[in-house]
Amino acid sequence: MSKTFYVTTSIPYANAVPHVGHAMEFIMADVLARYHRQQGAAVIYGSGSDEHGSKIAETAEMLGKKPEDLAAEMSKVFQQLHKDLNSTPDIFIRTTDKKHIKSAQAIWKNLQKSIYKGKYEGWYDVKQEEFVPENQVDKARTNPNHPQAYQRLSEENYFFKLSDFTDRIKQVIDSEEFVVVPLTRRNEILSLLKEGLEDISISRPKDKLAWGIPVPGDTTQVMYVWVEALMNYITMLDYPEGENFQKFWPANVQIVGKDISRFHAAIWPAMLMALDIPLPKQLYVHGFITMNGEKMSKSIGNVVAPAEILDKYGLDAMRYYFLRHIPSYGDGDFTWERFDAVYHGELANELGNAVQRVASMINRYQQGVIGEYPHPDHDTGPYHEALENQQFDKALEWVWELVRGLNVFIEQEKPWQLAKKPDQSHLREVLAACVGDVLQIAELLTPFLPQTSETIQKIFKDGYVHNYSGVLFPRVESEL
Ligand code: MSP
């Protein structure tokens, strides 16, 4: 049986258009999916849209729309973003899909032993879709990260015995049966677990919030959106009976942002333990993208839409920047100046030139004939190791060592001087070595820059240089 690989993104709320943070997460998952496909594994890359809950109900009301219409519209926008980014999910789940609803209700039933009815008296943060414990609420009664005031709730709902699972979760994280990367995030979770987890509300009364999945056997309650959304990672595999579930669960890597790591490193593992099914192997927590050092927000007016970058610099440039220049293990900044410098410096001048020079020298000195070329003997171990640990930045840095090395090699060997010698054998050897390097670079870039890598491979296909009418990374005039 071939190896399997299952990677997921978080599923964004379908209440607003996507921003670059969503785009980065999709690209990361896509790189892993493409990398493992390239290694011969059977891969499922899962993504989707989170469509129930107060946030969507409220936005829809404000816009004078039905929640289902708003969610359908926004879900399409997210699906289009995947296409625009060349991101290739095998499954895109909408939490309003019948399949998700049916499976979520089956999960609820299987969680029965850990569920009890109680009364919630406290605060709710609609923007974050979170019940906020009293000891975290200050006088302003708002979350410092956004201006919307908390709602006061006093209602009957179902609770999940999260407190039962503190020790077991701590133990699986400690033993690395459940790996949380990077270390800073792992430590954060461990210190949260030290304080102990409290039981959480997992439903809302239907008369207060109708936009949710009905709790099986109780027509007065709908499921709390987070709990239902977390289930997507197995409902998309057709839990409990589905073939995909049998074959692909547990997930190899789940990718989420730092603001939602608690849900994924505490509540989700507890749910899985209560269901008695294995935990994902790895939870990878990425950081936040800031704009000129500031949080991106509509009120500051500094939100960059993915389409703006794509239109101006193209797809692979965007993939490159977010994977190489936003640190894989931390936060990172986007500025147009920096993007422009990276585009012209690293993509056009370093990679683009190397490819162009090799192709044009073979055209000029050997009438386009490449001949036999060696397979380079660079040790690619560090590249693979970086990818095993979701260090996209490190993996690309390593490929760039090869790109720079190739440019240095060309400068040192000076094929234009070798071409003047009567014996052309050394020239042939040098150019063949360059082709070997270029093709290895293209292969290693396949998961990251699929279009560019394909173009490079086409240029050097079948033993001779195919003329490529264009430049890999044409100059972009900017008004910066
Ligand atoms: N719907 C929930 C996820 C449910 S998963 C079962 C949600 N949606 S979200 O749209 O608010 O966020 C989706 C992802 O985008 C999260 O991983 C979040 O961390 C990420 N980002 C949101 N803002 C971001 C940045 N500025 N930078 C990078 N990622 C960011 O949470």
Query: What is the strand content?
Result: 15-25%
**Main pleated sheet:** 6 strands, parallel
Poorly predicted spans = none
- Shape, principal axes of CA atoms: elongated
Mean pLDDT: 95
So how many helices?
18
Measured as a percent range, the helix fraction is 40-55%
Overall SS class: alpha/beta
Radius of gyration: 26 Å
Ligand set: 5'-O-[(L-methionyl)-sulphamoyl]adenosine
Number of strands: 16
Biggest sheet, spatial arrangement of strands: 3-2-1-12-13-7
Give the CA-CA distance, first to last residue. 54 Å
Helix/strand layout:
Elements: E1 4-8, H1 20-38, E2 42-49, H2 54-63, H3 67-84, E3 91-94, H4 98-110, E4 115-125, E5 130-132, E6 151-160, H5 166-174, E7 179-181, H6 183-195, E8 200-201, E9 203-205, E10 214-215, E11 218-223, H7 225-230, H8 232-235, H9 243-248, E12 253-257, H10 261-275, E13 282-286, E14 289-291, E15 294-295, H11 306-313, H12 315-324, E16 332-334, H13 336-366, H14 381-388, H15 392-413, H16 415-418, H17 425-445, H18 450-459
Parallel strand pairs: 1-2, 1-12, 2-3, 7-13, 12-13, 14-16
Antiparallel strand pairs: 4-5, 4-6, 6-8, 9-11, 10-11, 14-15
Helix pairs in contact: 2-3, 5-6, 11-12, 13-15, 13-17, 14-15, 15-17, 17-18
The structure holds 5'-O-[(L-methionyl)-sulphamoyl]adenosine (MSP).
5'-O-[(L-methionyl)-sulphamoyl]adenosine binds next to α1, α7 and β12.
